[in-house]
Amino acid sequence: MAEELSPVIGLEVHVQLTSLRTKLFCSCSADYRGAPPNTHVCPVCLGFPGALPVVNRKAVEHAIQVCLALNGRVAERLRFDRKHYFYPDLPKNYQITQYLEPICSGGYVEIETGAGSKKVRIRRINMEEDPGRIVYPAGSPLASPYVLVDYNRSGVALLEIVTEPDLSSPEEAVEFLEKLRSILEHLGVCDCGLEGAMRVDANVSIRGGDRVEIKNIGSFHEVKRALAFEITRQRDLLMKGVGVRRETRHWDPVRKVTLPARAKETEEDYRYMPDPNLPPVMIPRGLVEELRAKLPELPDARAKRLASQYGLRPQLARVLVKRKVLADFFEDAARLYPHSPQRMANYLVNDLLSWLKDEDLRGLYVKVKPEHLAKLIQLLDRGVISIRQAKEMAEHLARKGVDPERLVEELGYTRITSPDQLAPVVEEAIRENPKAACDAKKNPKAVNFLVGMVMRKTRGRADPAVARRLVEEQLSRVEC
Questions:
Q1: pTM of the predicted model, to two decimals?
Q2: In a shared domain, residues 162 and 28
Q3: Labelling 116: which of 43, 101, 317, 326 has CA 20 to 30 A away?
């Protein structure tokens, strides 16, 4: 029964080619974010009669590079189709996309799961134009009395990356999305931290049942929540003997539920046809090989290099390359101070990042600088600050971007190494803990408690080696 109720998940990931200055079929600016509604538009992206589209060559080149990076097969010719459906965000009542001949077919992305590595197959990658943006004033379809449409986004170059149904849990889906995001960032074709630059539709079914498509998922975290809810909903229906309806559902981020939107269309409903305004164009093999040669270092290769070059644990290297900006930041800091790369990477991932919660990590390189991280690790290696103090400094570095050397002075974190300064603190710790002092005379391991009390009283500023030596000296004069 458990096998019968296991989920089958496939993803459709829509990726904006944010590296392009103009839209896919016209010269309108693709940088629409923050612009007044319906100002980055023209007759082509508004679908006026007689307006003719012209393909953006750079978009084609970027699509080919994505295909190669995902181990896919590049099509021999570029061809576009019309996908007909009627929705307010589609001014022409059809979308220019690819159906019969996608620019890329096949391929895979390798992810890490609890059971080891797993290949998630790519079915196809289509080039298409982005629809307009539907705005729900109250944040939810049910709560909004009306909707607004902004066509600034209409016509922006999109890649639709469709997986095979190879995923079997929400966690695997998020792992795939994080790996795909890293590949796209390393290629430089998409700033995935921008709102709406990477959008996900999830298809989920319980093994053997009908498929439900979930739309309007805004983040990877919401993908996990939406899939978990939908899997539970479908399992409950099947356990009650009720069939799951094949349909499209919207994820409501406010109520944290999926809501029915419409019956799921079949391919026939879309009435695909070749776009007569965009005749097929052959893709030169020489261009494909030229673009293959220009591929940058991709995440898997970079993780292996980081582990080899800097002596990092493989898992730590994989965490760093999940976000290109994170790996770039680490390498920039390591070039400035190359002596403790393992400690530097651990501090960046485990301490500094805990105060940089933004999905796009824009705090890096804005407030925090690579030289800040390099200086902090250098101070740690020289014994100027303790590990505890370095951890406490992470919040200040992330939020204020203060130079670590200045921060040490501001926080009073200078290490106390003078025996004359520490002797009174040691005497006080022994006087306040007579039982612990007597235990320490019998058992040397118990000295650690008294050293810990000295560290607490000095807020971690005492040099542990000097504190231990003074504790042991003063214990020799203690009578029990």
A1: 0.87
A2: yes
A3: 326
129 bridge partner residues: 157
Query: Is residue 322 domain-shared with residue 428, that is, in the same domain?
Result: no
pLDDT band at 447 (very low <50, low <70, confident <90, very high): confident
User: What is the distance between the alpha carbons of residues 471 and 450, in angstroms, rounded to a whole number?
Assistant: 7
Asked if residue 52 and residue 190 are part of one domain, the reply reads yes
Q: The domain spanning residue 466 has which CATH number?
A: 1.10.10.410
Neighbours of 10 (CB within 10 A): 21
Domain boundary among the residues 258, 290, 322 is at 290
Q: Is residue 2 included in any domain, yes or no?
A: no
**Which residues neighbour 313 within 8 Å (Cβ) at sequence distance 6 or greater?**
307, 342
Mean pLDDT of the chain: 92
CB 70 within 8 A of CB 104: yes
Distance CA 11, CA 294 (A): 28
Residues 41 and 84 in one domain: yes
Same-domain status, 401 and 457: no
Q: Which residues contact 25 (CB under 8 A, 6 or more apart)?
A: 44, 45, 53, 54, 55, 56, 96, 129, 155
Please, which pLDDT band fits residue 360 given cuts at 50, 70 and 90? low
Cα(149)–Cα(146) distance, integer angstroms? 10
Total structural domains within the chain: 3
Q: Tokens representing 159?
A: 């890649």
Query: Is residue 480 situated within a structural domain?
Result: no
Backbone φ and ψ of 238, nearest 5°: -70, -35
Give the separation between CA 290 and CA 25, rounded to whole angstroms: 24
Q: Beta 108-113 vs 104-105: how paired, if at all?
A: unpaired
| Whole-number Å distance between alpha carbons of 452 and 467 | 9
**Domain of 393?**
299-411
Q: Residue 231: inside a domain, yes or no?
A: yes
Cα distances from 145 to residues 137, 140, 202, 253, 267, in angstroms, run 8, 10, 27, 17, 32
